[in-house]
Specification:
The structure is a single chain. This protein has about 425 residues and is an alpha/beta fold. The protein is about 35% helix and about 20% strand. It contains 17 helices and 18 strands. A hairpin with a 6-residue loop joins strand 13 and strand 14. The longest helix is centred in the middle third of the chain and has 17 residues. The radius of gyration is 23 Å and the shape is globular. The two termini are about 35 Å apart.
């Protein structure tokens, strides 16, 4: 067992870490690589202004602000779904954020509106919005979808705080999509990146039905008021979503595949959020209880995310199903899958990768094997090439050697690269 795996097993153990404190949250991705994706949407808009927002593959983060939950709060490890700040998530490429909020029934103060996940309490909601605003100030040509969810059964707000939440969203994001925009040109199924840039919009604010339909000081704030006065839109009208509620990776992948097919056959004028999120499950029998006590089964989302981000799980699934109409791709712990995020962004390119020649040679010598046609068949949307296992992907009878690729993006972007590989080597060719 690797050292990190051993630590994670100990920290997952209910017998040892009985309050599931957030100690040793794994922070090292399987494939160590650093990508700065802070302006990917601006670059995509410049290259393909006609691209519809519904056709853009958009990385998103699940329970985005859960990172503000203190690590050593009881059961924090069960609620933490991100390791890095909102600002860092955006710089890594996330353009959909999932924010859960709560408050106090005896307060009307903005400072008493906070981030939450279930019963766990995180940082100030205003601070999180400031991070998004800071990112957009530095990157004004990016476009961020912010969905705010309130559950009155967890951390109930006063009507004054409900109003303050809408006011805070409206005042923070001056270039948000308005009610008039939705009525005239902003249709998720047809609006293009060029349209969004031309109208100088950088934020779409979505709220659930518990954030409107209340009375405060004699005034009713229904959905119409939320839209017209605050630029906040009903999430169910603009976004199709499904929580899959499983900790079984194959079931999660299969369910997402079925959901995307249903979405394609239904209302095409909404964005589609595919939730690739594993949900911890309570024990269903003695074996589960023993497994959780010993740390062999985990209630920690980070443990489940590491399983999902194994090279033969989510990444292979998305690579092999890259032609499907993915839109928002929701992820836990975005810092643990940087290569996957880069691959998703690369799927948006309209420039084809032309493979001229591809060969493989065994490490200890031997003839070059022509794998050109196999490499061509591995291209995702004809624009990206992602090797997760050279031996398996190319159908070789050896696991160590050198892969030689001659290819180009357009006339001026020719490449001739030699890639030494072994069983652990992964390699991504994409244009962003």
């Amino acid at each position: 067992m690797k050292v990190d795996d051993g630590k994670e097993c100990l920290c997952s153990s209910l017998a040892i870490n009985c309050f599931q404190l957030g100690c040793f949250l794994h922070k090292s991705p399987r494939c160590s690589c650093a990508h700065d994706n802070r302006d990917w949407m601006a670059r995509l808009r410049a290259a393909s202004p006609e691209k519809k927002l519904r056709d853009v593959v958009i990385p998103g983060t699940h329970d985005s602000a859960s990172v503000t939950i203190p690590n050593f709060a009881p059961f924090a490890a069960v609620g933490l779904c991100q390791n890095v700040s909102i600002l860092d998530q955006l710089r890594r490429g996330a353009r959909y954020l999932d924010l859960r909020v709560g408050g106090k029934t005896n307060s009307n103060l903005v400072d008493d509106i906070f981030i939450c996940h279930g019963m766990l309490k995180g940082g100030r909601f205003a601070d999180v919005l400031d991070e998004i605003d800071m990112f957009l100030f530095d990157n004004p040509s990016e476009f961020v979808i912010v969905e705010v969810i309130y559950d009155r059964n967890k951390h109930a707000m006063s009507t004054g705080q409900l109003l303050a939440t809408l006011q805070l969203l409206s005042s923070t994001f001056e270039q948000k999509v308005t009610d008039e925009d939705v009525a005239s040109w902003f249709r998720p199924g047809t609006v293009t990146l060029g349209d969004i840039g031309e109208k100088e919009r950088n934020t779409l604010l979505l709220i659930n039905d518990q954030l409107y339909g209340f009375d405060h000081e004699g005034t009713t704030y229904d959905l119409t008021a939320a839209q017209k006065e605050f630029g906040c839109h009903a999430n169910h009208k603009l976004l199709k979503n499904r929580w899959h509620n499983t900790s079984h990776a194959p079931s999660l992948l299969k369910s997402n595949e079925a959901f995307l097919c249903e979405a394609a056959e239904g209302d095409c004028d909404v964005l589609v959020n595919s939730q690739f999120v594993m949900t911890p499950q309570p024990p269903r029998g003695l074996a589960d209880v023993v497994g959780m006590l010993l740390g062999m089964k985990s209630l920690r989302p980070v443990s489940l995310a590491r399983e999902l981000y194994g090279k033969d799980v989510l990444e292979r699934f998305l690579r092999d199903n890259s032609d499907s109409g993915w839109n928002v791709v929701l992820l836990d712990f975005i810092d643990l899958c940087p290569q996957l995020v880069r691959f998703l962004l690369g799927l948006n390119s309209s420039i084809h990768l032309k493979i001229k020649e591809a060969t493989a040679t065994k490490k200890d010598g031997g003839p070059e094997i022509d794998v050109t046609e196999t490499a061509r068949s591995l291209r995702s949307r004809d624009c990206s090439l992602y090797f997760l296992d050279f031996k398996k992907d190319l159908g070789l009878d050896f696991a160590e050697g050198t892969f030689r690729l001659k290819a180009q993006y357009e006339e001026e972007n020719a490449m001739d690269i030699a890639i030494p590989f072994d069983r652990e080597t992964e390699y991504l060719v994409c244009l962003i």
